[in-house]
Amino acid sequence: MTKISPEFEEEMQTEEVLQVSVDVSFASNHFPKYKLGADNQILEEPKEDNHGPSLKEVVEQETVSLSEQHKRLSVRDLASKFDKNLSAAAKLSDEAKLREVASLEGHVLLKKLRDALESLRGRLAGRNKEDVEKAISMVEALAVKLTQKEGELIQEKFEVKKLASYLKQASEDAKKLVNQEKSFACAEIESARSVVQRIGEALEEQERNSQASKKQDVEELIEEVQEARRIKLLHQPSKVVDMEYELRALRAQIWEKSVFSVKLQKELAIRKRDEENKFRLYVLEGSENLGSYLKLKPCSDKAPQLPNCSIQWYRLSSEGTWKEIISGANKSIYAPEPFDVGRILQAEIVSNGQKLTVTTSGPIDPAAGLGSYVETLLRKSNTEFNVVISQMNGQDHASHSVHVFHVGKMRIKLSRGWITKARENYSSSMQLCGGRGDINNSAKALFWQARKGLSYVLTFESERDRNAAVMLARKYAFDCNVMLAGPDDQV
Description:
With 491 residues, the protein is an alpha+beta fold. 52% of the residues lie in helices and 19% in strands.
């Protein structure tokens, strides 16, 4: 049995170290840490990356950002951005070349290390030999992994070249686009200059023409003034005064003749009506205007008594083309209301099957000053009239105390002091018209049905107040989409 001395072991270990480390230069002072997985695969432990993303990732992020901001960047900014990315791609290409050189050096180092381990495996035996074989397998695995890394490096190099060519082409296109936009801008500037020049010339021409026209107008005005002075000198002041006196006298004569003509026409109408009434049984008494009342009167002994006759009043158009019944007007007295202005009134008398008609000589005339009075009242939100209750629900009212009739924009109220007799909003059940029937002071009377089952006949202080109240109430009711009219039947 051979005995190995300690000196022999020391010499052999020294020879191992010298043979392994002759031409090998490691980047670090310690061997990389690896683990063997299934099927003797080498698993590299994860390393902490403290250097941030790689240059390739930065270029990709910049490319995506440029694509997103393409619509927002100007052409010049886009060109400068492409130039920057082109320089970054060139830098990345140079770095890829350096990495390729480092990869070649890694292959050389791994080959030398594998040769050194092979020489050691022939010299060692036992457990040391197994460690050397494990080291050799790890070196081979490192060589395979390095080969894979080289493949990835080649692919990355190809992509970098492709990206560089794309960026170069994009930079050239951007420069062309900048030059094109610059030429377009220059052309637009020249066009704008020409337009401004033409506008300036037109303004100067217009100013010259305006000055010439002003001068011509002044000359014409001077000529007109001189002609007027000449005409004034030709006419003596005394003749002008005489002509003015003559015009005033002529106007006065025309006025007198027109007044006389109106009187003659009225007298002729009265005589004509008197002649017609000789053959009539009934006539109308009273003024045919708003604010008065009309009364049927027999003008012959042969005329039947009015209480024994059936009477109905009608409205006729001024041309007589249509006829409208006046509901509730079935007595011998009728006081015209605002609806009757401009209409012809007709009373129809029926007795023993015989029908007689009496018609006004013309349309009902409006009351003087009533329109302006109503316009003044419309400026108020609420108008009050002093009234006396003549009838209530068709029965005579015994008390003749003064009440207040409020006509508002939304409702009508009848009160006495703080006591409210009736207060109703405008509605379809409300009725309002002039007083009809045998009523004292019918021209001042007003019929108001506040609601079904409650009606009043009110007497105002004057005919003007009664007609104004009717007009105001109908105007406010119309604004509320309600039409105020007379009753279907009034006793």
